[in-house]
Design goal:
This protein has 521 residues and is an alpha+beta fold. Helix 14 packs across helix 15. It folds into three domains: 169 residues, FAD/NAD(P)-binding domain (3-Layer(bba) Sandwich); 182 residues, D-Amino Acid Oxidase, subunit A, domain 2 (D-Amino Acid Oxidase, Chain A, domain 2, 2-Layer Sandwich), CATH 3.30.9.10; 98 residues, no CATH class. Helix content is 32%, strand content 22%.
Length: 521
């Protein structure tokens, strides 16, 4: 059974991590392994925010080496060049670390970057960029970089459909990876933190109340939705890892604190391309000269993202019809023979990037930063902004080092593991099964026992991932609800409510009425 909120009343922790996305989960895992008594709380479900809604790329860092309008941008701004090198190094190290230690968590792809005569970037610049990347990061896995002449490129799937093929100078081809299921990586980190002694609770709102005279913070915890009176716990140090909600946490204690987050919205559309395109993707620039991708995803592809400042409802982030139309247009500009239309869009998703607010930059700063909030009247509170999904491990390690410089652990150090949950393998074996029966759903439900699932949506998206990967019939949705109901003790009326909530969320947040519509069959 999930622990009650009242069971935590008066508990004292070394570190409280507020925010259970992939970076917060990684921080909790690292802290627990180092011997810190750790609490991690999340106001929604673990991994349900920006973690679940990124472009899912475990990329090599090529985009960080793009100087802007010209190479002279780096010459005029050497600090920007240094920061680009730091972020590219982080990307290459993360790529190597995850692929080597958790190969079942990633999909390998072949990406291409088309280079047109007269465009902003030249072939020699791509050659130089990949030499830099090779020098910055481990050699394993290799980049497999080569630059193809148009004639050779025309023999490759997907590439042959590029626009203005007669204007191509060459095509850079390289190996790339994708985080198949970032929510599960997040959940596995939370479970590993628990195994190492951490306390984890989702659907729990945290508010900073007061700082004790002896040091440390009194923190109010409240069920979401409220089910019990809120309770107080204490933590010697607080990590604010709430992503796009970071400012909300800060202003719960200091309403006049300076802004830390600027959110930019990234939208994606999912389509089916010919089978020959499986495993092949494209990295390019859209008509606004922003990064744009065609990314393979098992037997499907997705296009995106968008890049617009977002000031809307952060709990209901969805792709609008105008955004779908724009991405379809950009996909057709990139690959004209596809002639995609709105009816080709199988599903959509959108997320908001928690970038660092900078009044001088309209779209914020992308560099990962740790903020000491003492200047905002919050001593012993740290916040992280602009932490990409792909570098979550180094984010957790960096935060651990900062905590170590301020606080000694109260317990012994323990070995931590990055091994994926066995559930991943069970899920993968079921992907191609035509229809799951009650016994299979019951088996899946038993495997997620103790994994903090509260709703049917938690079970289908973030615990099993099946809702992302295949069409679920109404009958399967009901069987899934019945199976998880046995684990969670739902009465019959709550089963009906959970089915309705799941279907409403799919319609609202994923555009067509199911994440994988019948067009995907």
């Amino acid at each position: 059974m999930r622990m009650t909120l009242s069971s935590l009343r008066g508990a004292v922790f070394d570190v409280a991590v507020i925010g259970g996305g992939i970076n917060g989960a990684s921080a909790a895992q690292q802290l627990a392994a180092a011997g810190y008594r750790t609490l991690i709380v999340e106001k929604g479900d673990f991994g349900s925010g920006s973690t679940a809604r990124s472009s899912r790329l475990l990329h090599c860092g090529l985009r960080y080496l793009a100087p802007g309008r010209s190479m002279f941008d780096f010459v005029r701004r050497p600090a920007r060049f240094v920061e680009a090198m730091r972020m590219a190094r982080q990307a290459m190290q993360a790529r190597s670390d995850v692929v080597r230690t958790s190969p079942s968590s990633v999909n390998r792809m072949q990406f291409c970057f088309p280079i047109y005569r007269g465009d902003r970037y030249r072939g020699w610049q791509l050659d130089a960029a990949f030499r830099i990347l090779s020098a910055l990061g481990p050699a394993d896995p290799p980049l497999d970089y080569e630059r193809l002449a148009p004639g050779a490129a025309a023999q490759r799937p997907l590439i042959r459909w590029l626009r203005d093929f007669d204007s191509l100078d060459s095509v850079a081809v390289f190996r790339e990876y994708q985080l198949d299921w970032p929510e599960r990586i997040c959940m596995d980190a939370v479970l590993e933190a628990e195994r190492l002694g951490a306390v984890a609770r989702n659907y729990t709102l945290a508010r900073l109340i007061t700082r004790d005279r002896s040091g440390g913070w009194s923190i109010a915890l409240e069920d979401v939705p409220a089910a019990e009176p809120d309770i107080r716990i204490r933590a010697k140090l607080v990590l604010n890892m709430a992503g796009i909600w970071i400012d909300d946490v800060i202003r719960s204690a200091n309403p006049s604190a300076e802004r830390k987050i600027l959110g930019t919205k990234g939208c994606h559309i999912v389509v089916r391309l010919p089978d020959e395109c499986r495993g092949y993707g494209i990295a390019t620039l859209n008509s606004r000269q922003e990064p744009f991708y065609c990314i393979p995803w098992h037997d499907l592809h997705y296009f995106g993202p968008t890049e617009t400042v977002y000031e809307g409802d952060r709990d209901r982030i969805c792709v609008t019809e105008d955004e779908i139309e724009w991405i379809v247009g950009e996909a057709n500009r990139l690959l004209p023979p596809l002639k995609l239309t709105r009816t080709d869009v199988i599903s959509t998703w959108a997320g908001v990037r928690p970038l660092t607010y900078d009044a001088a930059l309209l779209a914020g700063r992308r560099s990962r930063e740790i903020h000491d909030l003492q200047s905002d009247g919050l001593p012993d509170v740290l916040a992280m902004t602009a932490g990409p999904v792909m570098t979550h491990r180094s984010a957790g390690q960096e935060l651990l080092e900062v905590v170590k410089s301020r606080l000694s652990p109260s317990g012994p150090e323990r070995d931590r593991s990055y091994a994926p949950s066995p559930l991943r393998f069970t899920r993968d074996r079921l992907i191609d099964v035509g229809h799951l029966g009650p016994a299979q759903w019951a088996s899946l439900a038993s495997k997620v026992e103790g994994e903090h699932a509260v709703s049917l949506t938690d079970f289908l998206f973030r615990r099993t991932g099946l809702a992302w990967r295949r069409l679920l019939s109404d009958d399967e949705i009901r069987q899934a609800a019945n199976a998880i109901a046995l684990q969670l003790g739902w009465p019959s009326h709550q089963i009906e409510l959970e089915i309705e909530k799941y279907q409403a969320e799919v319609r609202s947040l994923h555009s067509p009425p199911n994440p994988l519509s019948e067009a995907a069959e």
